[in-house]
Amino acid sequence: EAWQGQIFIVGTCMLLCNLDRVAMGILAVPLIQEFSLSMTQLGVLQSSYLWGYLIGQLPAGLASDRYGGVPVMLVGLLVWSLATCGTALAKFSANPLSIAIATRVLMGLGSSVALPAVAATVASNVPSDQKARATTLSYALFNIGNVVANLCTPYVSEYLGWHWSFAIYGSLGVLWAALSWYLYKKSRFSIAASKVTRNLEARDKGDRPKPSVFQLLLKRKVMLQVLILAYCHSTIGLGYFTLQSWIPVFMAKDLGIASLKVAGLCTAVVWLATSFNTAFVGVIADKLLSKMEFWKVRKVAMTVSTIIPAGCFFVLSTTQSPMVGIFCILIGLVSWSFDYAGFHPYIVEVSGEYSGTILSFTNSAGVIAGIAGNIATGYLVGLEGNFTSVFRILSGVYLVSCILWNIFMKGEKLEGM
């Protein structure tokens, strides 16, 4: 069906997005050695991607809702892939840190379309009983990007040089953007109607046009719901961006795993398990919808995705055992992936045609948390020499998110408030 083709396109773009994004974190140790970076400088570099990512959130959400998720995603793919290629130039620059930061900001700006584009594609084209499955499939491919990056990057870095990782991954993105655009224009994947067209159709039928998303947000109850959703998304972003960027450094400093290949293999196994679980929970969630109200299904998924990671983060703050550490990262991330069957489908279900824009608001909170988390992690690790405080803070933040979701998220449609 047409929607399956669209999900395939945006899903593969998500894979490439994470492939490009994760490479910097995997290469943190060799970059520290080659450019004599401090932990604070590394924290700034790791967070620079998120600066551009944050700037682009609202425009990406509005564009996705208006023009459709697939075309917006492909434009973003082209931008972030070219920026990824440009990151390789830091190798040959007299000021490598500045070049790396500038290209990572641009890469973040391009990839800011990723989540809003997926939300808009699912909301506009996927049947109600398939939405969780389509969403989790897209994010499963997203996490596969982590697997590919962790398996391939150490070898590319060792045999060709770290800069070739960025050059190769960026080039793949440019090629896929061109091929996907051709497939999209030559097939039935094109979206039949934009938001503007739907409003015109509503007017022709005598219905009132839908209010704008900004008019919707002026309602007190809507704003409260969106603010709580934003906190929950900031929790997701804080945990995800911190782990994605700092797992190799944590393994080296706290667990004593110095080999980039060993750390990459361990991390790849973790993300592979996370990817399989992401796809699995979407299927289960869709089946549960015939037996439970949708918001109760989402509540179960969100409870699992917050309370178990909170416990795992606390254990990580107390251990130096490689086995215990890797096991906790594995269990924490696998359970964290339940949010793809909870948070993201819930946004689509309560926001409807505003999904892309609402998700851009909540994702902005997640990005801000990711920026703060990366900088704070660099500072705390540089100050204390370990990740103890980092994981204790994460544990507390996730526990609060679990409580807020269970109290306030009852499935009320934003437009009906």
Describe what you observe in this structure:
With 417 residues, the protein is mostly helical. It has one domain: MFS general substrate transporter like domains (Growth Hormone, Chain: A, Up-down Bundle). It is 81% helix and 0% strand.
Give a quick precis of the structure.
The chain has helices at 2-26, 28-35, 39-55, 57-67, 69-87, 96-111, 114-125, 131-159, 162-186, 195-204, 213-217, 220-253, 260-288, 294-316, 322-336, 343-351, 355-384, 388-408. It has a single domain, classed as Growth Hormone, Chain: A, CATH 1.20.1250.20.
Output the number of helix runs.
Answer: 18
Average residue pLDDT: 87
Domain count: the total is 1
CATH-level-2 architecture: Up-down Bundle
CATH class annotation? Mainly Alpha
What is the strand tally? 0
Which radius of gyration do the C-alpha atoms yield?
21 Å
CATH topology: Growth Hormone, Chain: A
Outline: globular
SSE string = HHHHHHHHHHHHHHHHHH
Structural features:
single chain, 417 residues, Growth Hormone, Chain: A, globular
Note the topology.
Layout: H1 2-26, H2 28-35, H3 39-55, H4 57-67, H5 69-87, H6 96-111, H7 114-125, H8 131-159, H9 162-186, H10 195-204, H11 213-217, H12 220-253, H13 260-288, H14 294-316, H15 322-336, H16 343-351, H17 355-384, H18 388-408
Helix pairs in contact: 1-5, 1-7, 1-8, 1-9, 1-12, 3-6, 3-17, 4-5, 4-7, 4-17, 5-6, 5-7, 5-9, 7-8, 7-16, 7-17, 8-9, 8-13, 12-13, 12-17, 12-18, 13-15, 14-15, 14-16, 14-18, 16-17
